[in-house]
From TrEMBL:
Pfam families according to UniProt: Polyketide_cyc2
Organism for this UniProt entry: Streptomyces corynorhini
Protein name (record): Cyclase
Xref: CDD domains: OtcD1_ARO-CYC_like
Domain of life, source organism: Bacteria
InterPro entries reported for this sequence: Polyketide_cyclase/dehydratase (IPR019587), START-like_dom_sf (IPR023393)
Organism lineage string: Bacteria, Bacillati, Actinomycetota, Actinomycetes, Kitasatosporales
Amino acid sequence: MPVPTSHHAVHRIGIEAPAGRVYALIRDAAEWPRRFTPTVHVERAALDARGERLRIWATANGEVKHWTSRRTLDPEGLNIRFRQEVCSPPVAAMSGTWALRERPGASCELTLSHTFAVVDDRPEDVRWTTTATDRNSRTELANIKALAERPASGAQPLFSFEDSELVRAPAEAVYAFLAEARKWPARLPHVSRLDLAEPSDGVQVMTMATRAKDGSEHTTESVRVCFPEERRIVYKQVRTPPLMVLHTGEWSVRDTGNGLLVTSRHTVGINEAAVPAVLGADATVADARARVRAAVGGNSAATLALAKGFAEAPHAA
């Protein structure tokens, strides 16, 4: 069989921050969903002191893709090499390097290079992959620059919280309630509409209209990754309400030996610029956090209570 043609892409950006700080942002892949706009979820497994394997779910040209990469870490040389072990079509092979070069004045240059091939060398797939690589690379470099250059006092106001419910029922019934989002409008009073697509096994893309206590509605779009064997669902909102710039979360079902602990976890970034318009001229970030905690936590708590009722009902046994 003919060897697919290799294609190359190189993207660079200057960053007014020390190279070590930038390297640490790239190194900590578990945080990418909260740092890189395209990244939905990362599962990390350490292989040795210099190697790791990443399972990555991310958006590319508006589609959700999943691949597995092996990374080789070189903190002394300030570079990280990667190679996809399992690709997502139309990509047939993908490798590259994150490389940092120190510059005077505690600044640096970051270069992200890619070498890739596509299945059967189809021109339309070359164009698709080139566009996706260019778009995501530019977005990721801009995200890194903004994070690295942000002063410590200007850190993005992220905060995390969780709600739990103890359920005495089969884990399969609880997980099914959480995974069967298509049925939520009939099961959850605060969900007025939900459109669900499942582009690949275990991946759900959902657009959901949520009704607030005051009768108002807001629409969000999320990508969910389901792990039925682990009774776990992770997600990232790719379209958030005005008061948020970030919302990632996880539903988990854990056997405690005395029932199931069903937990909803959230990490939220507040959109500071929107606080006055949404909450009033005198409102603060603390007020926004309290509003988000009450609204998001309230919906989670209601979902958990309804999941408990559903799973513990005789019909679910």
